[in-house]
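FORM 7B: Structural annotation worksheet

SECTION A. Query
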Amino acid sequence: QVQLIESGGGLVQAGGSLRLSCAASGRTFSAYTMGWFRQAPGKEREFVAAISWNGALTYSADSVKGRFTISRDDAESSVYLQMNSLKPEDTAVYYCAGMRHSIANYDLPRQYDYWGQGTQVTVSS
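SECTION B. Predicted structure
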């Protein structure tokens, strides 16, 4: 069992930066693919970024490429999402998620086994 807790969300002006953190508990955290998803009001949850268990592979949605960076620090059992050049359309609840065993289909929410409670990110114009 893995528990994930996000933090770092808040209100930021367009063009600004924000770093989200996800603290994890569980003996097998280091073997998990980790991802970030977001969900805006009235929309389905969408993939943002993912990172393999060893940090060697990262993937990002086209909408955030060049602006968002995912990273992990297994020694601290944490995953991060550095968000730069934020846009109003980035406004959403951001969730971190963990997937056991594989990074296959990293962009599909149903592939993830554990989810955090979410943290609100609001980008003003």
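SECTION C. Observations
The chain has a mean pLDDT of 93. The CA atoms of residues 14 and 87 lie 5 Å apart.

SECTION D. Sign-off
Analyst initials: ____
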